[in-house]
Hints:
By secondary structure, the chain is an alpha/beta fold. The chain has helices spanning 30-37, 128-133, 154-174, 240-244, 259-263, 266-274, 293-310, 326-339, and strands spanning 2-9, 12-15, 20-22, 25-28, 43-51, 57-59, 62-66, 69-71, 92-98, 100-105, 124-125, 140-148, 183-188, 204-213, 236-238, 280-289, 315-319, 343-348, 374-376, 383-386, 391-393, 407-410.
Amino acid sequence: xxxxxxxxxxxxxxxxxxxxxxxxxxxxxxxxxxxxxxxxxxxxxxxxxxxxxxxxxxxxxxxxxxxxxxxxxxxxxxxxxxxxxxxxxxxxxxxxxxxxxxxxxxxxxxxxxxxxxxxxxxxxxxxxxxxxxxxxxxxxxxxxxxxxxxxxxxxxxxxxxxxxxxxxxxxxxxxxxxxxxxxxxxxxxxxxxxxxxxxxxxxxxxxxxxxxxxxxxxxxxxxxxxxxxxxxxxxxxxxxxxxxxxxxxxxxxxxxxxxxxxxxxxxxxxxxxxxxxxxxxxxxxxxxxxxxxxxxxxxxxxxxxxxxxxxxxxxxxxxxxxxxxxxxxxxxxxxxxxxxxxxxxxxxxxxxxxxxxxxxxxxxxxxxxxxxxxxxxxxxxxxxxxxxxxxxxxxxxxxxxxxxxxxxxxxxxxxxxxxxxxxxxxxxxxx
Length: 431
């Protein structure tokens, strides 16, 4: 399977009479895009705002972030199962608007805020320390602010919000089709039966990717994998190109993973770079993180068996999604892989760390002697002092401090500062 990503580097974004890309500028017809999104009866109104790097601007209630992409090969579909029909992702040519991002903001007028939630939700700052720490402080952001129609449930609104983001991402990227790309990246991996041809001396490595945690209630109808939510899925073998090319989105809610980061998956890209040099990249096993021990054992055993007896892996890289509980599935899967002779390395944010006492540092909730190669991405609770801003995009829930004022905020609540997949501007350092 061969995937070609043709990237246009976006250096500015502005509203205009026609949506097009020219000389690094993305021009957006606001009324046309609003009309497209208002075809969904779950919205009574859609507002669209722009946020550029360097502006003293703060975006509130950020639910997800998506990179604009659209297929250019006849017969292929944008975000299969959502925007386009059910066809395989991961092949052909895709137009990418690099440096641009579609930001989804929860724009409900009234919402309840639990004791562990913040009235502003997760934010993006376009200037100051927050922008320096976050990858989205450097992107040119098109912010969607849809208002739900009367009677639309929270779950239906969240599904509609995700669909609107994917539609917008495809709509914007189609404006770049036919424009000469600034760079082209090719990702090509043959079928599993052929992948080791000529590479017999290299270790065969598989990536085991948790794509959904059941510590949160899955939203029925939310597009996660090929347009469907997949709480009951068993471990499935995917081609890495499918992950990079729109088959997979970040579920709502999630912790420190956005669809943008999945589209630019750093671990998959790194394994591709090393393929044929010091390893043989053998594919991706997509799996979940169950919320009970019986299913943790079931999923972990199945994932390890696919890695050993279907892929024939010599090594595996594993990541988790969600908070601390998914560590159990992560570690148990790694332990079972090790017992089958597969060397494993896991990468993780320490969401379950005890931050009340710094001496404990980056704690885990497992202790398995076989799981002895852990890449720590730190604890996402460092506090950033954020300066006041001149413009706020989004709607805060009642209560809390002024959204435009100075604040001290944990990095876990600043979108894009951390990433469960390793796509972060920050580095974990032990002193």
